[in-house]
Specification:
Layout: H1 3-23, E1 28-34, E2 45-47, E3 54-58, E4 61-65, E5 72-76, E6 82-87, E7 93-98, E8 103-108, E9 114-119, E10 124-130, E11 135-140, E12 145-150, E13 155-161, E14 166-171, E15 176-181, E16 186-191, E17 196-202, E18 212-215, E19 220-225, E20 228-233, E21 239-244, E22 249-255, E23 260-265, E24 269-275, E25 281-288, E26 296-298, E27 305-309, E28 312-317, E29 323-325, E30 331-336
Antiparallel strand pairs: 1-30, 2-3, 3-4, 4-5, 6-7, 7-8, 8-9, 10-11, 11-12, 12-13, 14-15, 15-16, 16-17, 18-19, 19-20, 20-21, 22-23, 23-24, 24-25, 26-27, 27-30, 28-29
Length: 342
């Protein structure tokens, strides 16, 4: 290919990405994938980067669908109290945290069969693959610790007491792990070489941190708290900025191609913020979604967002005093720019 052609293509790509970021406040729900099933709750949903299949936590099962069409592909059952799904890169293995079983289950991403299980702390919740150590890190919500799983043996090799309820965690890919501690309103920083705690970083009185993401280029951490996004320097823990977000956020994603931050708010919207540089941020109008859509996944190739929710009774309450989920209404919302008018 000629150098001139390459330059034109490169310019077009950069222009397209910039335009995407500028118009992101106009994104909207463009598809609804009806999953159905019983009136169980849900938590995280994840895209397998190798197959691009969408894995959805739903009560005691994982629903696996084609993210382009919503067509069902498979189900993984016997995952009672499921919270999160993670994948081991360049292998056919995945991991599911089963909070009510105090276990992580290992599955084959081709056959979708359970191939092993690992005992963890109490109520394993968020989990992720940590690239520096090549381990699976699991946050245990009731025992206030992390389980470090070696995927070569599928055993817990370390337990780290973090002194509170761990939520989402991320890595700087250089030897440090950051964990939101929901009931202590702080971020714990862990040395991945020794699996010991380095720091406890406060969030300036902001409460209930849940979603967490990192920009490796600017060394910025994005922590979603109660109606507030707190942005910290991942090297020092210094708070750089605080920006208001919607109510009831339980998840967030950062699109590294467009520098867009999306927080999924259970009140029925997504807060949208663009990182202009390490110190400047622009807030856009919210994207309207649906009540209960509080967790989120990002397709990094298409820039589409996916959120889980259902319909709720206006009169009946469940055992926790929340609006009762209506039977058979569980669904996935796809958010994109596909149907926008020019």
């Amino acid at each position: 290919m000629k150098a001139k052609s390459i330059s034109v293509i490169a310019f077009s790509l950069i222009f397209s990405i910039a335009a995407y970021g500028q118009k992101s406040s106009s994104m909207q729900v463009t598809n609804t994938f009806q999953i159905g099933g019983d009136d169980s709750g849900w938590d995280y949903l994840s895209l397998n980067p190798q197959s691009t299949q969408l894995y959805i936590s739903h009560g005691s099962r994982v629903n696996i669908v084609d993210p382009a069409t919503g067509s069902p592909i498979a189900e993984i059952t016997d995952t009672n109290g499921i919270h999160g799904i993670a994948f081991l890169p360049d292998t056919g293995k995945g991991y599911i945290s089963c909070g009510k079983l105090n276990k992580v289950k290992v599955f084959d991403t081709i056959t979708h069969k359970i191939i092993g299980e690992i005992s963890t702390g109490q109520n394993p919740d968020a989990l992720f693959y940590e690239p520096f150590t090549k381990k699976i890190i699991v946050g245990n919500g009731k025992s206030n610790d992390l389980s470090v799983i070696d995927p070569s043996t599928d055993t817990v090799i370390q337990t780290i007491n973090v002194g509170g309820k761990p939520e989402a965690a991320v890595s700087d890919d250089k030897g440090r792990i950051f964990v939101n501690i929901e009931d202590k309103n702080e971020i714990v920083v862990i040395d991945a070489k020794t699996f010991t705690i380095l720091y406890h970083w406060g969030l300036d009185k902001e409460e209930e941190p849940s979603g967490l993401a990192i920009d490796l280029k600017t060394s910025r951490l994005f922590s979603t708290c109660d109606k507030m996004l707190v942005i910290l320097d991942s090297n020092t823990g210094k708070i750089v900025k605080k920006l208001p977000i919607g109510k009831g956020c339980d998840g967030m994603v950062f699109d590294t191609k467009t520098n867009m931050i999306y927080t999924s708010n259970g009140e029925g919207n997504i807060s949208v913020i663009r990182e202009e540089n390490a110190y400047q941020y622009t807030s856009f109008p919210n994207i309207e979604t649906k009540k209960g859509a509080r967790t989120i996944a990002l397709n990094r190739m298409t820039h589409r967002l996916y959120l889980s929710t259902a319909d709720f009774s206006t009169t009946e309450k469940d055992s926790r005093g929340r609006a009762k989920i209506l039977q058979g209404t569980f669904k996935i919302l796809e958010v994109s720019m596909n149907k926008l008018k020019k």
